[in-house]
Amino acid sequence: MMKLTNSITKTLFQKIKNISNSSKPPFSSSSLYKSIPKEKVDCLVIGAGIVGIAIAKELSINHGREDLVVDSAPIFGTGTSSRNSEVIHAGIYYPPNTLKAAFCFRGKELLYKYCRDHEIPHKQIGKLIVATGLSEVPKLTVLMTRGIQNGVEGLRMMEGYKATTLEPELQCVKALWSPSSGIVDSHSLMPSLVDYDHTMDLGRS
Ligand SMILES: Cc1cc2nc3c(=O)[nH]c(=O)nc-3n(C[C@H](O)[C@H](O)[C@H](O)COP(=O)(O)OP(=O)(O)OC[C@H]3O[C@@H](n4cnc5c(N)ncnc54)[C@H](O)[C@@H]3O)c2cc1C
């Protein structure tokens, strides 16, 4: 189990670690638990994926909250957040007037800024969404309309031969060019959000 905290005392961690390492089953000895000092925090975040650690950092840095992040894994970011495609999405896919669409669009801008400010490897390389057959072309049109409604700028439909000038290995009849899409190195992004001075591995939970 891992805990990230901005001010919980190390004594607490050591006591809990002693319990985890104890040969006795922990539930047989309630006195051990009683000996643990009760800690109070403003916010408890469960799950140290990208969402949890980003929320914790925001609460701590910009809102002055004392927060504690716990995870069942021994280190942060072992779940989906370290196994995804690392695409910074433009905001094309979610239906207009939904929170997902609004967060994706705004989050993209904030993420690019954060990456620039903190020197996180990233690139706004753009993305081609392709129709490999004529039957898929209407789907591209839907995505383009949706993207425009969501405020995504620069979307452009292009013929397949034009798309191959951007990516020669591509075979498609049409493509939707999304210039504001990009990629980010999530393995640099996540550690940048973590306060290592207050990160403790507590062994098994
Ligand atoms: C194949 C794939 C590709 C993707 N590609 C992209 C992409 O290119 N771009 C993009 O923006 N998004 C992408 N996503 C989505 C993105 O990865 C997720 O939205 C994001 O990682 C979710 O982060 P999270 O912190 O909510 O969850 P997670 O990263 O899953 O973190 C959850 C944490 O909670 C912990 N946990 C769970 N249950 C408990 C419990 N009971 N007690 C304690 N801890 C617990 C887990 O150990 C884990 O560390 C992709 C997703 C998938 C599956």
What does this structure look like?
This protein has 205 residues and is α+β, with helices and mostly antiparallel strands. Helices cover 38% and strands 18% of the residues. The protein contains 7 helices and 10 strands. The strands form 3 sheets. A 4-stranded mixed beta sheet has the order 2-3-1-10, covered by helices on one side. Strands 4-9-5 form a 3-stranded antiparallel beta sheet. α3 links the parallel β2 and β3. The protein is elongated. The N and C termini lie close together (5 Å). Bound molecules: flavin-adenine dinucleotide. Flavin-adenine dinucleotide binds next to α3 and β3.
Structure keywords:
205 residues, alpha+beta, four-stranded mixed sheet, 18% strand, binds flavin-adenine dinucleotide
